[in-house]
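Propose amino acids for all 123 sites.
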């Protein structure tokens, strides 16, 4: 098997990197949660309101996955009732660069940009 590992091509290595990123991020909502937490620490219900397109269970699963992979910190405060706050770790904050690049890409190529089929001009 070591021979197979040494014979990977550049594109296979790139695919492996992309797969690793997707495994770390996990759920499809991870990008949205990470982007929201860039605004600072948030309690669960505040985060749920801010990313209202995500169902509660999906948000819970996404936060658990991101915490397990070291991108999100879950801090429990001993209050009555218990207060839980979510924030980005250094690893999670470092993902901001990738999110900004994704934002640039969608600004250029996203669905909100309409092309006039007759002239090819942007509207």
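Proposal:
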């Amino acid at each position: 098997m070591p021979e197979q590992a040494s014979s990977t091509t550049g594109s296979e290595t790139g695919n492996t990197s992309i797969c690793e990123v997707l495994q770390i991020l996990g759920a499809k909502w991870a990008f949205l949660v990470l982007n929201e937490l860039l605004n600072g620490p948030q309690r669960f219900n505040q985060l749920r309101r801010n990313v209202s397109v995500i169902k509660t269970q999906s948000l819970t699963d996404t936060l658990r996955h991101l915490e397990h992979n070291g991108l999100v910190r879950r801090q429990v405060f001993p209050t009555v009732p218990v207060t839980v706050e979510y924030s980005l770790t250094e690893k999670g904050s470092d993902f901001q660069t990738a999110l900004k690049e994704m934002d640039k890409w969608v600004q250029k190529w996203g669905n909100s940009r309409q092309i006039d089929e007759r002239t090819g001009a942007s509207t």
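The longest helix spans residues 10-25. The domain at 24-101 is CATH 1.10.10.10 (Arc Repressor Mutant, subunit A).
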